[in-house]
Amino acid sequence: DTVYLKDYQSPAYAIEKTDLDVAIYPGESFVEARLQLVRQSGLVSELALDGEQLELLAIEINSQSLSKDQYRLDDGKLVLIEPPERFELYTKVRIQPEQNTSLEGLYRSRTIYCTQCEAEGFRKITYYLDRPDVMSDFTTRISAAKSECPILLANGNLVEQGDLTDGRHYAVWHDPHKKPCYLFALVAGDLSVMEDHFVTASGRNVDLKIYVEEKDLDKCDHAMASLKNAMRWDEEVYGREYDLDIFMIVAVDDFNMGAMENKGLNIFNTSCVLAKPETTTDAGFQRVEGVVAHEYFHNWSGNRVTCRDWFQLSLKEGFTVYRDAEFSADMGSPTVKRVEDVAMLRTHQFAEDAGPMAHPIRPASYMEISNFYTLTIYEKGAEVVRMLANLLGPELFRKGTDLYFERHDGQAVTTEDFVQALADVSGRDFSVFQRWYNQAGTPQLEVRDEYDENTREYTLHITQSTPATPECADKQPFHIPIAMGLLGDAGEIALKLRDEELEDLPTDNTHRVLELTEQAQSFVFTDVPEKPVPSLLRGFSAPVKLKFAYSRDDLVRLALRDSDGFNRYEACQRLALGVIEDALAADSGGELNNFTPDERLLAVYQQLLQEEGLDRAMLAYMLLLPSEGFIAEQQSVIDPIAIHRARGEVAGYIAKALHKPLLAVLENYDLRKPYKPTAVDIAARLLKNTALEFLMREPDQAVVDLCVKHLQQANNMTDELASLTALVNSRSPLAADIAPQKLADFYAKWQDESLVVNAWLALQARNANPGGVERVEALLAHPAFEANNPNKIRSVVGVFANANPVNFHGGTDADPEAGYRFLADQVIALDSKNPQIAARLITPLTRWRRYDKQRGGAMRGQLERIKHTPGLSSDSNEIVSKSL
Ligand code: ARG
Ligand code: ZN
Questions:
Q1: For this chain's UniProt record, which GO biological process terms are given (predicted)?
Q2: Which of 134, 305, 565, 773 is deepest in the core (most CB within 10 A)?
Q3: pLDDT digit string, tens, across residues 802-852
Q4: What's the pLDDT tens digit per position in 168-201?
C-alpha cells in the first residue's frame, strides 16, 4: 500500500487525554488504555484506530461494553461504528514483549523492557490514532515484579509510586506536555543510574539521569558531559531551554537505530551512549557526543514543534542534524567536522540519490515509513537547512528559528512552515529554494571560466542539471548558493561583480556567495589582474556535484594556498582521484602497465607534511586517499576489483615514497600520553594511525615491530584497534604470520565488552584480503555473534556488504556470486524477525544497475530471490520492488 502526501486529511478526532496502565508479567504484558476522544469535524460514521499484534481482551465506550455491531477488527485496525461526539474509549489488550524481535513497540532487550514507537510502533502497544498530528496528555502507570524490574520509568514527572501484593510494585508518570504517541516511552528493568544536574538559564534545576546496566556505570561520564554541553549550547545558540525537571537517558543493547528522543526519556543504543577510553575509539566518543546532543536538541526541533505527518520527517531530522553538526563543530574543529560529514554525504547520500530509492527530502509517497529514515532525509535535509542558514546569516537565521519555535510551539507542522518563518524574518523569496524539498537527485554544476586580459574581466559561466529520478524526470532549476573566491599567483583577488547593482550580494572582499537560481547564469568579475584559479563551493556550500576543468597545477595551488580549509582538502581529493583514475586507465587485466603516479601528488603531500600550524586532522584527511566507495561513485560502470587494485597501487607507492616522514610521525607519537577526547589529541591519533596504515601496506620488519608495539602499549581503544586493523589488513607475510594470534588475543581480552566485540567483528568483516565470504560466514558461527542483535548484524553483515567491496563483489574463488548470495541469505533469514533491519541490509544489492552485465545480473538475481520469499515484509518488499 502506498501512502500519498496529497491525500493528507486532518484527524477526525482528537485524543485529549491518554491514560495507560501497563502491567508487565513474565512472557506477557497487559495494557489498559483510557482515551478521551473528541470529534474535530462533522459527522463521522466510522473511526479507525491503529493496532497491530494486539490481543483485544475488553472494549468499552463510556464504561459500557461494546456489542459486536458497534466495532470490528480489520487488518491492523479497530473500527468504531458511529462513535459519539465525545467519549472515553477503554481497551485492554495482551501483548508479548519477550517475543517481539522487531524491536518496535514494547520489547525486551536482555533484562530491560523498553519501547520504540517512532514512527509507527505505538500501535503495537495499544489501539490508538497513531499519527503525529494527534497530540495528547499522557499519564502512564507501570507495574512489574520489584525484583526483576526495580526501576519503572515513563515520560514526564513521577507522580506516584508504591508497593503492591505478590512482590510487585508500580509507578505513575505524567507528562505535562502534549505529544504525539511516537514520543511515548516506558522502561522497566534492573538498572543502575548515574546522576547529575543542570541549572537552566532561567534557573530551573534539572535532574539528569543516565540509566545503564550496572557493568556499564563506568562508561557514562562522556555522555553526561556531552548532555550538559548540549543543554548550554542550545540556550546560547538557539535560546532554547529545557522544560521539565528531569531528563533521563536509558541505554539498551538491542536497538534498531542510534537513539530516540522520547519526551524526557531518551532511549539509546548502548553504542551511542557508553564510552570510556579503554573500550571506545575517538570516533565512538564523537558519536556519543553527537547523538546525545541530537536527541536532546529534538526536545525543541521535533517535540515542542513536531511533524504534521511522516512526509515532514526531515522537518525535525534535517534541522536537528544541522543543529548537532554545528554543536560538534563548536566542540571540536569545524573544518574537520565538515570534511567528515561531506565525505559521508558524497559517498553514501549521493549514491542513494542516484539509485532506485531516490526521494526528495520531503517525499510525496511511501510504502513503509521506516524505509525513509534515510541519509537523504537526515543528511541532505541538514544540508538544505545549512544553505538556508548561510543565505540568511547567523542573526537573521536565529530570528527565523525564534519565530518558528514561537509561532508553532505545541503544533504539528510542515516543512513549508519552517521555510515560511525564515522568509518572514528576512523578506527573502524562497519559492525557487522550496524545490530542494520536492525534487530528488543531486544537481550537477558545470562551470567554465573565461579571462580577458584587455578588459581584465573574468567570467564564470555556470549551468546546472539534475538527472532524472524515479519520482520526477524533468527537474526545475535549484537555488544553489556557491561560496567562492579567486586565487591569483600572489594570493586571493578582491571580488567585484560587474553588474553589482543588479546582484544582491555580500560585499566582503575576497570571499562571496553567488546565487544560482536559473539553469544557466554568468557572473562577470572586473579588475581581475591575472587569470585566477577559482575556489568554488567553499565549505561545500551546496549538496551538488561540481565539474570544472581544473588542471593538476590548479589543484596544487588550491591544495597548498586556498584560504578555505575545506577546499584545500577538496583539491587534494581531486588530485588523488585523478592519479587513481590514471592507474585505472593503465590497468589491463590486473597488470598496471608503465604506471608511475603523477609526482605532483607526492609533492603536495610532502609540503603538507612540513607545513607549520596545519591541523593534524586536516593533514590526515588530506593525505587519506578517497575511499573505494567514493571512487566508485565517480565511475559510470563500477569495477570494484579494479578500483581496489588501483587505489592500493597508489597507496603503496605513497607509502614507499613518503616512508621517512610517515615513520617520523609514528616515532614522534607519545604512546604514554593519557587519553583525552579533545580535538587536538584526536587529530594527533588520527594522523599517527593514518601514517601507520600507509606504512603497513608494505612494511619491513621494523615497521611491523612498531605496529605490534603500538598494539601492546596502547592506553586507549583508538590506538589499540588501529594497530590491530593495520596488522590484519596488511598483505605482507610479515604481518599475516602474526595477525591471527593478535586477533585471538584481542578477543580473549575484550570478550566481555559487547561494544568492543562489535568492533572486533567489524574489522574482520572489513578485511579486504582474499577469503572475505568464508571469513564472514565463520564470524556468524562464532559464539560472539548474536543473531537478533542489530549491532552485531550490522558489524558483520552490514560492514561486509557496504565496506568490503572487493570481497562482496568478488565472491570466492569458486563462486563469484557468493557475496551476493550471502547477503540475500541473511536478509531472508532476518526479514520475518526484524523487517526494519532486513530491509536496510538490502541497499547494496539495489545498486545493481551501476555494475557490468554479469555482476549487475547476479545482484539482480538475488533481489528476485528475496522478492519471492513467502510472507516478505512490506519493508523489504518496498526496497526490492522499487529496485527491480
Ligand atoms: N528519531 C530518531 C532519531 O533520529 C530515530 C528513530 C527512528 N526509528 C525508526 N524506527 N526508524 O533520533
Ligand atoms: Zn533525529
A1: proteolysis
A2: 773
A3: 999 999 999 999 999 999 999 999 999 999 999 999 999 999 999 999 999
A4: 999 999 999 999 999 999 999 999 999 999 999 9
Q: Sign of the CA dihedral 519, 525, 530, 533?
A: negative
Distance CA 531, CA 315 (A): 43
Report yes or no: 64 and 106 within 8 Å, Cβ to Cβ.
no
Nearest-CA neighbor of 91 among 60, 113, 118, 64?
60
**How many secondary structure helices (H) and strands (E) does the chain include?**
32, 34
Q: Annotated active-site positions, please? A: 295
The string over 165-191, giving b where at least 16 C-beta atoms fall within 10 Å of a residue's C-beta and e elsewhere, is eeebbbbbbbbebbbbbbbbbbbbbeb
For residue 803, which amino acid is it?
A
Kindly state if the Cβ of 293 falls inside 6 Å of ligand 1.
Answer: no
State yes or no: cis peptide before 119, omega within 30 of 0. Answer: yes
The enclosing H or E element of 159 equals: strand 157-163
Return all residues near 718 (Cβ < 8 A) that are at least 6 apart. Answer: 281, 282, 283, 675, 682, 685, 689
* pLDDT tens string 483-516: 999 999 989 999 999 877 655 555 568 999 999 9
* Number of Cβ atoms within 10 Å of the Cβ of 684: 19
Query: By C-alpha distance, which of 440, 445, 459, 466 is closest to 523?
Result: 459
**Residue type, position 612, single letter:** E
C-alpha 398/C-alpha 383 separation (Å) is: 17
Output the pTM of the full model.
Answer: 0.98
Give the residues across from 446 on adjacent strands.
463, 547
Task: Determine the Cα angle at 25 with ends 101 and 91, to 5°.
Answer: 85
* 3-state SS track over 643-698: HHHHHHHHHHHHHHHCHHHHHHHHHCCCCCCCCCCCHHHHHHHHHHHHHHHHHCCC
Ligand 1 neighbour 118 (Cβ under 6 A)? yes
Q: How far is the CA of 257 from the centre of ligand 1 (A)?
A: 6
How much is the CA Rg of the chain, to the nearest whole Å? 28
Closest to 841 in 3D by CA, of 853, 827, 829 = 827
Distances in whole angstroms, Cα of residue 644 to Cα of each of 590, 625, 632, 650: 11, 12, 10, 10
The pLDDT assigned to 828 comes to 98
Q: Which of 302, 317, 322 is nearest to 404 (CA)?
A: 302
